[in-house]
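Entry for the shared binder. Reason: the reviewer on the internal report wants the predicted structure included alongside the sequence.
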Amino acid sequence: MKECKKCKQSKDLADFYKANYQYEKDGHDYYCKYCRTGTAIKSHRGGNKKPCSVEDCNRSHYALSYCRMHYARFKRRGTTEVKNQSIGEDNIYYFKGKPFFRKEYVLKYVYNMEISEYETRAANGCELCGDKPERSLHVDHDHKCCNGPRSCGECVRGIVCNKCNKAIDKYETGLMRADYPDLDKVKKYVEAYSVRSN
């Protein structure tokens, strides 16, 4: 028999795990199996914590009476509410009060481009290699002007395929090999748009 140091109950040695440390003379853990794997882990994982203070949130408290998600939102924006809800209940995206379908919304929000302009420019395929992939083409913009996730719209260059988009990036960052087969095309493309923007 041995007394558990957590629940203070005397239990058989079979109710204790074997210990790897030498200071327990009987070679068994000082917590019983139940205390080691049951209540101890529950309390450690937050099972007994109070709930988040935001209405209709059933997550457990993390900090400042909020759960982890609402705490992060509060630290980032100063409020736990979602600002600028971009998508409505009808799965229509909204930008500055106007409704858009997803592709239209992404083009307008990220590149300040209308869907009609994109479709006109993408009709002939990739501007560099002429490829017409099954999946949609990418909008290329000058990262020297807008180096974030969004573009001002003025620095949008061409509509290119995924392969050429990566090649342009490698050329601009100086990582392109000297023996790349389409090096001249990429160079002319970048120089042509840099002349237009100046």
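Summary line for the report: Residues 93-197 form one domain.
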